[in-house]
């Protein structure tokens, strides 16, 4: 191999200087066009997943007309998707460790394609549930394999930026899906909107690129295929010497030897249970912040706020999605520069503020009104009235809530939406929703997945990230299924305050237990968890501050 300007020789390096030489190579390594191609291709799984979520949020409004869905059934549609994600994450974790990362990515594509084909035949509620479970299963695979794969092929000082591409693709697809929904929302026919969802199957064509994507070099080294790994590492580190590449392989191989054979039992033992508890804790608390659930019901929530037309509600949900994308771009730029902890702590703090403001906004609109025995008891509180699937609201006679099936509803000209009578309150609530979405996207929604892809030893990384993904999807399933029924009991403002409380616990958890991982190789991060927890916490933060002062190449 012809030497480049940044080539560093290990021929005369002593063991004392080896670490410094490796770090020098890492600092001088930029992202190649080949690496961008690999990352973006694999991140198409996130794109497909985001497209599905964006469609589902808008389709819920159309579904409830054609299927006459109850509050419980709406929750089941969303919940069954996440239940599929739970099982997808668990199974994908095992397959990734045994068969490989690339094969698992192919499996992801197959299940997404299958789910979209099934969606073309979903004409009844039971078949719709089968479709949603299959797509959710694919989403679980996607959330497990994509961050893990990208993390394993990324240079140390660009790992955060590259893993963030998964979330960027997810949010971009969500935005596109909402745009497409706007075009067809005026039709409001399920056969059309469902077929619109089915068009997502065309995204699977893009997975042809997976044939050009290599296997993870770390997985190859784990299985003794060092020469194949060298070829891939040469593409990632094009200006490094053969000696550097061989030394990288030795470091990874040594970690594999020390870990011995991976198994689920290891996750229950020291020191493996510590990163598992940290990652699962982050991913569970992330869902208890309520973002995914609120985004599933974004268009519905915006209608409750007071933006009456279906198209208008979807347009404002589009604005929220775009704001999330912008904050992800900000996070992508800074994540390898100022560190994971600072961004994540700032993100959670902003999420808490957004949830509190959102709760205040909803208290103006729906009040703290629980589910009533009859519709008439809601009186003039439109938000609480339309949240109850038995009721509709009329602006006649100063406002009245009536039963959908009563003759009174015909007399008064009732609606299942709240008209824009309180625009100031509606705009305040919408702005709070946008703030919440932006601050969550800054770090809470992205960095938790990055951390999960970084902190596990190689031999159990697939199994462990699978458990983390399953924990996340399982919690999402629970929260999304009980969200609307629980709103009838403790009200929407009450739920939002509960989300804020869980986020506060997450803030404390991150501050107390999460080490800084910026600027560390995956093998170095693994070493963090060998030391006592108080010791590695203080050491890791100190090391991170030093690394942040290290000169980096300009991007």
TrEMBL record:
One family name in Pfam for this protein: Sugar_tr
GO annotation, cellular component aspect: membrane
Transmembrane stretches, start-end: 33-63, 75-96, 102-122, 129-150, 170-192, 276-298, 304-331, 343-365, 426-451, 463-484, 490-514
Membrane topology per record: Multi-pass membrane protein
Coarse class of the protein's main subcellular location: membrane
Domain of life assignment: Eukaryota
Any one GO MF annotation of this record: transmembrane transporter activity
Compartmental location: Membrane
A GO BP entry: myo-inositol transport
Gene3D superfamilies on file: MFS general substrate transporter like domains
This protein's name: 8738_t:CDS:1
The organism of origin for this protein: Acaulospora morrowiae
Source lineage: Eukaryota, Fungi, Fungi incertae sedis, Mucoromycota, Glomeromycotina
